Amino acid sequence: MQKEQKNTKKVVISVVVLLVVVAALLCVYLVTKGTTNQGEKALTIEIVHKDGTTKTFEVKTEREYLGEVLKDEKLVDGEESTYGLFITTADGETADDTNQEWWCLTKGGEQLNTSADQTPIADGETYEITLTVGY
With contact defined as beta carbons under 8 Å apart, do 25 and 32 qualify? Predict the structure, then answer.
């Protein structure tokens, strides 16, 4: 009987610990996900090709996330996953995975830690999509 009480106590403690961890992770997500801005926004999107040339796009949108804008303007194509849009093609140029090429997303020169679909936008911001070689 005492062994059964110990097992029940361990299960209850484990469930409580799990709930606390889940709540903490949810709080971290909500704090770090960023806020969106409603209304019309003007963005600058620069696509830097493999040969070093840059093409600049000035976009006006009411969308709240960068991925929506990139898709609406047909600037990129890619694969959807649980992590969001993985950009494979930008401005008609496709990254060659066999050469370790990939499209790096930056904002004002700083690399983003979110996918385009999870990146909130604000008026006046500049984003760069650069074909990068090497993982």
Answer: no
pLDDT digits over 61-75, tens only?
Answer: 999 999 999 999 999
Going by their DSSP bridges, the two strands 110-111 and 93-94 should be labelled as unpaired
Q: What percent of the chain has pLDDT over 70?
A: 87
Rg (CA), the chain: 21
Q: Which two tokens stand for residue 42?
A: 């003007």
Written as six digits, the tokens of 125 are 């911001």
Distances (CA, A) of 1 to 6, 11, 12: 9, 16, 17
- How many CA atoms lie less than 13 Å away from 126 in the CB half-sphere? 9
Give the rounded distance of the alpha carbon of 60 from its chain centre.
Answer: 20
Distance set, CA 117 to CA 13, 26, 47, 64, 134 (Å): 38, 19, 17, 10, 23
Using CA atoms, how far residue 91 sits from 20, 22, 39, 46, in Å, is 45, 40, 26, 10
Give 123-133 pLDDT, tens digit per residue.
999 999 999 99
